[in-house]
Amino acid sequence: MYSGKKRQTTRKGLIMTDETRQIGFIPMSKNGRRHDKRLLDKVDIIRHISPEVTIWADTGFQGIDKQHPNTQIPKRELEKDLYRLNKNKKIK
Fold first, then answer.
1. Which pLDDT score is estimated for 28?
2. Is 40 exposed, middle or buried (0-12, 13-18, 19+ CB in 10 A)?
């Protein structure tokens, strides 16, 4: 696939590591147009992770908390809210 932003074709892959940054799992890479969550669902690795293990994921994995009870994902900031906050600031 061609990325207009980067002006090149892109590939996307997942890497799972532990707290010491040791690589535990690397599935095959796919074309860059796929969503991160869709790649994770296709690999179906979540069901093999025990519920005691905390999964730290970025915002590209929204919805993973429904599949694994112990998940940490940062909250997504909406651009509209940021625009509204900046618009209401008074410049002196």
1. 79
2. buried
Strand 16-17, strand 23-25: pairing: antiparallel
- Residues 53-86: b if buried by 16+ CB within 10 A, e if exposed: eebebeeebeebeebbeebebeeeeeeeeeeeee
Q: Which tokens sit at 73?
A: 């994902």
- Helices in 1-91 by DSSP H: which ranges? 36-43, 79-88
Q: Across 1-92, where does the E strand assignment appear?
A: 2-3, 8-9, 11-12, 16-17, 23-25, 30-31, 55-56, 71-72
Name the residue type at position 87: K
Residue 4: is its pLDDT beyond 70? no
Whole-number Å distance between alpha carbons of 89 and 92: 10
Q: What is the pTM of this model?
A: 0.60
Residues β-bridged to residue 56: 72
